Fold each of these.
Amino acid sequence: MNDRKVTLNLLLCLVLLQTVISEDNGEDTVSQAHRNILEMVFKEVDKLTDDGIITIDDAINALNVPSSITADGSMTDVEYLTNLLHQFEKEGIIDGQLTLEEYINSQASLSANIPENGLFYRLVRQKWGLN
């Protein structure tokens, strides 16, 4: 299996994992260590405008869309990245502008279920497609 297929498979697994985890209606909180990780990754994606809001332009600038996703022509890079942003916005207003708080809130269940900081860091970066 090539690296891109592995990346795609990991991304899909993470999306499914987050979907299952987020069905839990418990009160999940984000530890300070995980909040720091989320803030660092958020800033890495927001580096184009550095305005505290991730937009499609930030995502296009910072992320590499796996070619296996767009190779068959069923989805463009912009469509894929828009869908990715909407996954994080599901608890807030879906407007294509992801705020830090929306992002942190969307990751609370994942944070609660992955207490180990190193693993959480790798999973968060992997979800964004960051190396």
Amino acid sequence: MIFSSGLLLKSRKDTYAFNYSEDNKIECSDYFVFQVPANRRIDDLTLEIVLYDHVSKQQKYLQQHKLGYLHLPLAQLMPELVDDEQQPQSVTQFFMRCLPFEDAKSYGELMVSMTYQSQAERLTVVIIRARDLFFTPDDDDDDDVSKDGPTYEIYVQVNVLRDGKSFKRKKTGVRHCDHVNSPVWSETLNFDMPLGLLATSTIEFSICRTPSQIMACCHVSANSHSNAQIFQNLLSGATSSAQWLPLNEPK
């Protein structure tokens, strides 16, 4: 079993460490220290703990699946955490129920940042990183297995779709992805198009494995169920911020 712990600053999660256990009782004596920005109040933060299953490195396909999580608003612990002068109090111990993840199979998430420059009529997409990618078995994986497990060559392809057909397409460089399943790109892709055309288009993000196997994808458009607000912010010229986009099974 693996668990990670992090403080949530708005929608950002920082994972600091994980531990292993061979039975159903997780015992950990480690301490996790988080630096809180000077402009943030402790009672505005939430502690997140995520539980994963552990796949041995000796197994052919390595994938860490999320089993459950808990969110603890620190405002509920303020009397126990600090005194009236914001000084630390004694250690607090308690039990909390771990909630199950709704998705039985997660295809991971992709972090992107998007802006539209109306004067230049240019869409700028920054592909930042991915996490918890799901790799399907492949007969050719035996050729890529090292002592630490299989290694995959991964890239992101961005398509701008109109009526279901791609009329603009670009892709990132290839990254070697091992059992961590969290490649980093930090690459910028630019698309020249008028705002009216972008408003009626769909931006498609595909996680691809070389040479051209699509492993997961997601869509951002005015009609997308979960990403419509992100698309509206893009069209309005709102300040860009990094967003985690949930990935789905390719169709």
